[in-house]
Design goal:
821 residues; alpha/beta
């Protein structure tokens, strides 16, 4: 069948829906049918799903002219999605087209939510089109005879590739693709990505920098100008001295008219605990919303999440309070309005969330920005500039993640086994392992067979056996079973399942929160007040309670930091406070009283100025620095500077930091000018000074826990019978200390340090920030009192000591005192 005929099948289908295919969809169809690989860059809600389902089906029709009467069984295409919430949407789109075209093709889902009976059914007979996650793909590779499953697969699509890039799940995907390229001779690999700064590199990571697939690939950009309107909710009254959390809920009544004027509103929070609090407070103040408002985050049980997603599609909910669990989700759902609560810290995340509203091609996206403290309005203004200037972050890919590679090699050894030479050449084609040496490869092979050099006396680390013909294979059933349970690269705190005493499953909570509860304590979770009864076999038993509670679980994943691009835009917006009114945004104008008060004690820095403030309070001498580079960079820079200052004079500091700056607090006065004269911000000896300043060994030790779990050195336990986090922590710490003392060249031990510096401390960004500060004029302001800029940092320090009610009272008194002065 010639291409024109195939195209007309697709165009007729579009015409029946009263749609017209976009140019980018046709381009993608054409490239796919020509046998090319590629990366499609298209915004959320632009019809990207149809851009790739159609050519997969058209290719099947072309190669099977009798497709309406004869159905060839077996897996033909895989669609990888990072979020389980997306699977049902994608399945509906795929089934709709497959059925309308009369192909008789079946569509199935395989993810962590798939039932055991469904998996068993798939084992006997795979669906034609499979929607899965990176973890479930690896689980299939751990199945005996997996090459027969994938042999006739002709297409693999990695959806939301920008979400996987720059994570270990992305590395897992790279490895899976490297294997499938060898097994499936006619495989075409496609990625779908929202706009990121490094799209070209994203294509290289997807296809492999040296693989022939890259030479036969295209990058297709949708170039659809989607109109995004950002409306800031500017409070009628605003504190001159802002603090984290002081606005947020006070603006709840401003959100109510927005909810009432829309069919469906998504309220995005940055953390799960914030999500729980907002849901509770809206219902508390507006009980009339009961049954019309829901909550969605990753720790709530599957049934509730799916019910919420379906209710959004049916337009039966007025509002959903959610986290990033719905960032990418629900395709073509008729959400009218989005509210972002608090700064999203990154441009891409904000655009993704904005794209949830007006989620159809050509529709305007409207997003309201609700600040949780006054300075976040500067972020709102910066986001407006990002949208005007099409600025988006890069996603930096991982290199040499040996823990993920060890897991992958064990996966292959668990199924059919592998021959090192063949697998080495496949792995070398990936982006992550392109620079891996033969020596490193040999070390990894020794590691999975003999355990580590310093642990050779312990059999539990010897997982893989080498058979006479050179095949690397896991023959022990127990090892194979434990490995399958532990496939994955997302390592959080140990999760405990929360159940009613009589058995109803509610969701999962991190162990670190539960360990702080006593029997009878009431906490808020999944929108309910629950009384804690006991923990039994990794299960938290609870009952419903009528008591009010201020305890809300906090999840470790909730600490977002400003991206590099966001930081730069934020600084530029702040600098605009010194420009004439006509050149300022509404948000910056609304903060004029704050800037006025700031100038009374200090300055609002201009582009060529770097501000340091110092003042004394009952707590001691405060020295506050304002790089506006995000909390990770500030943590590293604060430690670095306190170490360098201590070399000049014996002085100790305690450190506090947020996204805007950091504070060094000491009981001694510091001669700041003498310190500045000693080249404090130099990039010389940066790496050495950082290592000495930060207790980098402790940070690497924490990182190593994840590496030990991913590489399988530490077993996290069987489902429902997990191992307590303190045991995991102590096992991994023990291993870390053994390597530190006896095997410092251990690749996993060294990886812990690399990840600490590159990912946690963002050493590269720190270097650039120090270079920028070195070019600026350093302005040291000796203040009599705390300034509006410093106030969020000082009050954050009090949080650790005071309950939320006492904190609010204390801040009220501090503010009153400062305003009098």
């Amino acid at each position: 069948m010639i291409r024109e005929q195939l195209f007309s099948i697709a165009e007729n289908w579009f015409a029946q829906q009263d749609w017209k295919p976009f140019a980018f969809q046709k381009k993608t169809w054409k490239a796919f049918l020509q046998g090319k690989h590629g990366l499609l860059n298209a915004p959320t809600g632009s019809g990207k799903t149809y851009a790739l389902w159609f050519p997969i089906l058209l290719d099947y029709i072309k190669n099977n002219p009798e497709y309406k009467t004869k159905h060839k069984k077996g897996l033909k295409a895989i669609w990888i999605t990072p979020l389980r919430a997306l699977s049902h949407e994608i399945k509906q789109s795929a089934e709709r087209v497959a059925n309308d075209l009369g192909t008789n093709l079946t569509v199935g889902i395989r993810s962590g939510d798939t039932s055991t009976s469904e998996r068993a059914k798939q084992k006997k007979s795979m669906p034609d089109l499979l929607i899965t996650t990176p973890e479930s793909l690896q689980l299939l590779l751990a199945t005996k005879g997996y090459d027969h499953i994938f042999k006739n697969c002709t297409a693999i699509v990695v959806d939301e590739w920008h979400e996987l890039l720059g994570t270990k799940r992305g590395v897992q995907t790279e490895l899976g693709l490297s294997r499938l390229k060898t097994i499936s001779k006619n495989l075409r690999i496609w990625g779908i990505s929202a706009t990121i700064g490094n799209l070209e590199q994203a294509r290289q990571v997807l296809l492999g920098p040296y693989s022939p697939a890259l030479g036969n690939s295209v990058l297709i950009k949708a170039n659809l100008k989607k109109k995004i309107t950002v409306k800031s909710i500017i409070p009628s009254e605003m504190e001159t001295f802002p603090w984290r959390g002081h606005l947020g809920l006070r603006l709840l009544e401003d959100v109510i008219p927005i909810i009432n004027n829309s069919k469906t509103t998504l309220l995005f929070t940055n953390t799960r605990s914030q999500c729980e609090i907002w849901f509770q407070k809206i219902l508390e103040k507006h009980p009339e919303y009961a049954g019309e408002i829901a909550m969605h985050h990753g720790s709530i049980n599957k049934e509730t999440r799916q019910w919420v997603e379906q209710a959004i599609r049916n337009e039966s909910l007025k509002a959903v309070v959610c986290t990033s669990s719905l960032d990418l989700g629900v395709d073509f759902a008729p959400v009218e309005t989005v509210v972002q609560i608090g700064g999203p810290k990154g441009i891409a995340r904000f655009l993704q969330r904005a794209g949830r509203s007006g989620h159809r091609p050509g529709k305007e996206s409207v997003i309201y920005f609700l600040p949780t403290h006054a300075i976040e309005l500067v972020e709102a203004s910066a986001l407006q500039q990002a949208i005007k200037g099409n600025v988006v972050e890069d996603r930096i890919p991982y290199l040499n993640s040996f823990d993920v590679l060890i897991q992958y090699l064990t996966t292959l050894a668990v199924s059919d086994g592998f021959y090192p030479d063949g697998i080495f050449s496949e792995i070398k084609q990936t982006f992550c392992y392109q620079a891996m040496s033969k020596e490193q490869w040999q070390w990894l092979l020794n590691f999975i067979v003999l355990g580590s050099q310093s642990l050779q006396a312990y059999d539990e680390y010897k997982k893989v056996e080498v058979e006479e013909n050179g095949l690397f294979k896991v023959n022990n059933r127990g090892i194979a079973m434990r490995h399958r349970f532990q496939i994955g690269t997302i390592v959080g705190d140990a999760n405990l399942t929360v159940r009613y005493q009589k058995g109803g499953y509610i969701g999962t909570i991190e162990e670190s929160f539960i360990t702080k509860l006593k029997a009878g304590d009431v906490f808020t979770f999944a929108g309910r007040n629950l009384e804690f009864i006991r923990v039994k076999q990794m299960q938290v038993h609870v009952r419903n309670s009528n008591k009010k509670s201020t305890k809300v679980p906090a999840w470790m994943g909730g600490r977002l930091t400003l991206s590099a691009q966001m930081s730069e835009l934020l600084r530029n917006e702040l600098y605009s406070a010194s420009l004439p009114d006509s050149k300022q945004s509404i948000e910056i104008k609304s903060l004029s009283h704050l800037f006025k008060k700031q100038r009374e004690e200090s300055i609002v820095p201009k582009p060529n100025e770097f501000l340091i403030e110092s003042f004394e309070t009952n707590d001691g001498h405060h020295y506050i620095f304002y790089p506006f580079e995000g909390r990770f960079v500030h943590e590293a820079m604060g430690s670095l500077l306190s170490y360098r200052i201590s070399l000049l004079s014996p002085i100790t500091f305690s450190l506090a930091f947020n996204d805007y700056g950091f504070e060094l607090l000491s009981d001694q006065e510091l001669n700041m000018q003498a310190v500045l004269d000693n080249n404090l911000f130099s990039t010389d000896y940066l790496f050495d000074d950082l290592q000495k300043s930060l207790n980098s060994t402790e940070m690497a030790r924490r990182k190593f826990r994840d590496i030990a779990v991913i590489s399988g050195m530490v077993f996290t336990g069987y489902p429902e019978k997990g191992i307590k986090m303190k045991h995991l922590q102590s096992s991994s710490q023990l291993l870390f200390d053994v390597f530190k003392d006896y095997e410092a060249d251990n690749l996993l031990y060294k990886q812990a340090f690399t990840e600490t510096f590159e990912h946690q401390l963002e050493e590269g960004r720190l270097h650039l920030a120090l270079e920028r500060i070195a070019r600026q004029e350093i302005v040291w302001q000796r203040c009599q009192h705390p300034t509006p800029f410093s106030f969020p940092l000082i009050t954050d320090r009090l949080r650790e000591k005071l309950s939320s009610e006492k904190l609010a009272d204390r801040i009220k008194r501090m503010t009153a005192r400062l305003l009098k002065k």
